[in-house]
Design goal:
- The structure is a homotetramer.
- The longest helix of chain A has 19 residues, at 315-333.
- The two termini of chain A are 39 Å apart.
- Chain A is of the alpha/beta class.
- The first copy, chain A, is built from ten helices and 14 strands.
- Chains in contact: A-B, A-C, A-D, B-C, B-D, C-D.
- At the A-B interface, helix 1, helix 2, helix 5 and helix 6 of A face helix 1, helix 2, helix 5 and helix 6 of B.
């Protein structure tokens, strides 16, 4: 960590600051220029509050050299983390494909979709029981009943299930859920993250609409600092000025995150683009740039128009996606 | 609400959709062009899920003409709402000035600041007891003890207090708190909003870093739909590419929100800019464009360097801000 | 095009507007609701100024149903455009790979790189002679001399050359240049676009840092409206809040543009990410989602540290990229 | 300027780099930590290419401490610049109000508006003769004829005129124009900036839609480096995700720019918001936070619906704005 001090800083002030920094367990290296004084802070700075130092009157700016995340940092954990989920895993050699409906609507619906996505090669079933909706007047999900239906589908198909939590008080309902999802809007709901850190469940953490990769990793750190290291990161599009797509899928997040952290990284092309026609090409691109898996919305009943979501694929279209993705994965695994 | 249908849509499909829409209580007007078919949906569309309709295979796009918020809508509530807070109010004739430290640190600190901001013209005391921090390793606030200290300061100075909630399970700690703040990161924590909707406390709802004004109003609607109409909106900067300021203060949100809603709107120039030197000019600008109040960070102890936050004002500087703001308010209240 | 009129609009005003719209060659369909009046405007609206209509006092909002671009619109030109460039092409069956140095620095440098990228499978040589730099004090390129050096490299290797124009007055220098590049900062330099529309040179048009896909297509339309239909679109990253990468590469632009337009679309992963290590995975992702080609920065002299740009690949690393990209292209071309 | 070197860097490499930096006129201070090596570069770094240094293989990152702009830097020019414009000025004691139509349409129109805005207190007449339009099919302005009409209005009213240039080849048409405007889309049209740097005309430089304040100042630097120090900066809204307003007006740019530079800063609330109703409150806010002036769109003929632009004010409404702004200016000029 580097602290740049203002030019008028007195020796006494520098000494006071240096002493305080040393009590925080850091070595302090002073470098004095004609206009600025630079303090190099050496040691474990991951638990130092950079804003606090930057707020000092004599400090011009603070720059981290080491990243502020520790448990998630690849530097201290060079090997890829593999998160075991039921009979499968995320990270490592298995390419995870989580598929299913945006919302669980009925037993018939979820069963039919579960069978279809399993047949098409999905490794897990996803489905929303608690639905975060912008409007209080929109459908909020089947809640506990939705989780029951997912568990029935799990029982029949053997697919582990992934579903979103919105409130730590609901945790008991998630006992048999395999992966608990934290949605984009709750990425910085730190109270929820802390509670999830006390469980040993795999947590699928979605990047917020306006959150940096560093903030995503710091939110993972909240969960890991509590003792739960089973975190799966998910890029699902960020908010920009572009309007043809619902969000802008930031695929460069995949290789960048893989460099920064040992945690697995998956892509949700359905929410990222909001356009079913773009799901296949973006799923292929995600596989090509090194993602550990995908989360894709699939719906079963195109005849019943009200359920054919703008971003949902039919089971047939989804099968086409998995075949294309497998071809890409096979191509990139060939020796150079 | 207008739904544009795709060109190949059959009469049968149009009839099916129209019938369904009529069961939702809407009148449907058909307009047929050479390339597109347009359905005008007339009636109360605020509780219609536009995304659901847009997701229909035969629908090209859906455009709302009426806004999706109802309780917060000025159209159905032309007069400004005045939110009573202890012996003062927000909205109406009183210009609210909420001031105090970012974090409550000690009894001495909060008492001294409370006295100082009261003397300088603050109408309420703000202070953080539960602190949302990006890093789990940063100071998380004094929590329940922090609220106790704020209540002591309230008792002595008579200033109503404003402090942030991060978890609905903590609600009992907020019994004597006058205004409960929902932070930017929790603006779409819908579970928290629903719980706050069951109270009758004034809620200060901050705009999220990447949330539109419409989303802010929909989050207010979550609280109001639960029965609590005491909502104060707060613009505190949005996230953009600019780096000289921490966020970009969107002051045009003030007159735009005042047009859309009857709820009061206040500005937080401290978090918006992250730079103490910019607080005064932006506070004056907020007053000039019609804000109902301000929320400003003030700290008491510039000698103790670690507390002179980059965005905090000293009590003296804060007094200069209130004097300048009063001059602006006086100027704009003159008859034209 | 749909115009929504305000509720108080009188019959006389509606008639006046309808009459005027009819003189613009449009049919007008009226649909009257309880709160709004909707005009459906049928006919060729691509040359109608929507902002002008929206600015009318009686008009609430205007929504285009047809896109405002015509020459670039796939609807009126269903087949992919193939842009012939010397002995090769962009679009169609050939995957274009444009590679070379950010700046042309010397004859030795450009010759060595040209030979290396040709050997590694590049189909064109790129190199900057006129360099747009944020600072007037930074190196501005070798200008005319740089173009001379590129032409020498073209003569020896047979690779067509791509280089950027910043000023229409320089056009005579570009006589033997094969593809003229318009940089991101000049995407809406309409005067330059008009001049390029008068030539018959292939134009590589880069998306601006904060420009929508619609604006990119409207800028292509400026060139095409002048008679030059040889336009190649290039996504090179947009500006967001993320800081780990220089820009955010919007790969969903590829399938979205391919749907909207018949023009070829290429990707520049070097400028998009600003990080050499991310070029290979993003190049593979671009190939996987249907891009027609790539533009990649390659530099020859890693021993001479000052030239090993943060985003430039060595010729060896570049050869690794082309091999990986070829494997992806081969995989996605297999029958389903 | 600080350069952080990677941990594996050898002494030989450090020495090579240090030697090269010294040839650039810099002193180099070395600070060696356990994980990183830090070089403090002391001297005039404003003409150093930070990207070039950052691109070195051994360099992890580079951070400027001094700003890269020099002529525009308040540090080297503490007093406010006053730009003389005909019989008035921008900066200093006069609050500049530039008003007029978005486009010059006819002699009658421009004359009537010129008289009206003068009567209402405008200090200059603005009007578009060359119009940058997103679509090639939209009205592109009256061009040279438009400038003639503005000059007639200048002759009658005595108001200096401000109008936009899009092409340096048109410069001879601007001989009698008082202030030449560079539009947002041309803010980084460096070739145009260089040509304007050779003139001695006041240049009104608008901030680009996605440009940082630093980039705006670097573009001013392009003009000033050519010898023309008469630059007026204009904030006119930046592009964000918000859709209720056309752009997001960044008013904190005013006090931030006033701190960084001695150049005057004005605000264009018309383009920033795109909504006529927001022009008055945002003009008042601009005055309150220290802007040196305003640029406002005014149109004369509300009866002729096609000209009542969504963001244009009637002369009467404009007179209301100037009165309100004068009251704010008077209030903020009072002693504290």
């Amino acid at each position: 960590m580097i602290a740049v001090l203002k030019s008028g800083t007195t020796d006494k002030q520098i000494e006071n600051l240096s002493s305080w920094l040393k009590t925080q367990g850091l070595d302090v290296h002073l470098s004095r220029g004609s206009e600025h004084i630079i303090l190099g802070l050496i040691g474990d700075t991951s638990k130092i509050d950079a804003e606090l130092i930057e707020s000092l009157e004599i400090v011009d700016s603070v720059k981290r050299i080491s990243e502020p995340f520790k448990s998630a940092n690849r530097k201290f954990h060079p090997d890829d983390s593999v998160i075991n989920v039921g009979n499968t895993s995320v990270g490592g050699n298995i390419f995870a494909i989580m598929a299913g409906p945006c919302s669980v609507e009925s037993e018939e619906q979820v069963m039919e979709i579960a069978r279809a996505v399993k047949a098409a090669g999905a490794t897990m079933l996803r489905g929303g029981a608690f639905k975060p909706r912008t409007s209080p007047y929109d459908f909020q999900g089947l809640k506990a009943d939705g989780i029951e239906l997912l568990l029935k589908a799990k029982k029949e198909t053997g697919l582990p299930i992934v579903t979103e939590i919105m409130n730590a008080n609901h945790l008991s309902l998630f006992d048999e859920v395999d992966v608990i999802q934290v949605g984009a809007r709750n990425m910085q709901n730190f109270e929820l993250l802390k509670e999830l850190g006390k469980t040993n469940k795999p947590i699928l953490l979605k990047r917020g609409l306006a959150n940096t990769l560093k903030e995503l990793l710091m939110s993972a750190e909240y969960i890991m600092a509590g003792g739960n290291e089973n975190v799966i990161l998910c890029e699902r599009g960020i908010r920009t000025f572009e309007t043809y797509t619902r969000n802008t899928l930031d695929l460069s997040a995949v290789p960048m995150l893989k460099e920064l952290t040992h945690l697995p990284v998956i892509i949700d092309p359905s929410h990222a683009t909001g356009v079913a026609r773009l799901v296949k090409p973006m799923a292929m691109a995600a596989a090509a740039c090194g993602a550990d898996g995908l989360m894709i919305e699939v719906h079963n009943d195109p005849a019943h128009a009200l359920c054919d979501g703008a971003q949902s694929l039919t089971p047939d279209a989804f099968a086409g996606v998995t075949r294309a993705v497998r071809r890409v994965l096979s191509a990139i695994s060939e020796e150079d």
